[in-house]
Amino acid sequence: MKKKMIGLALAIGAAAVVAKLIGAKKAEWQGLSEAQVREKVEQRMPSRVPAEKREEVADKVVTAMRDRGVLVEDEAEVEESAPADEAEPSEPSSEEPAPADESEAAEPEADETEEPAQG
Length: 119
Known about the structure:
By secondary structure, the chain is mostly helical. It contains five helices and no strands. Helix 2 packs across helix 3.
């Protein structure tokens, strides 16, 4: 009985380690753009594999990742796919517009809801 419990604990521990490794590998590939995925596939394939075969494998990996929704679009692809009139507006300037009247710049208006300080 004791040997079975030890064997079971070892099996569960091994399964947990494998699950953690698989999760780490998935996280490593998640959020990459198509170009980054292709580059990573190229790096992992041996140089003796023909270029056509490497490209075919990269296409399959990219397609699978796109189907799962873990592939991030390249910025260049996003700009090409979005029409100019539907493009996202640019970030507003961090600078505040200059006041029209110099007196406004010298002294800000008092808030009407503030009560005078009692002392």
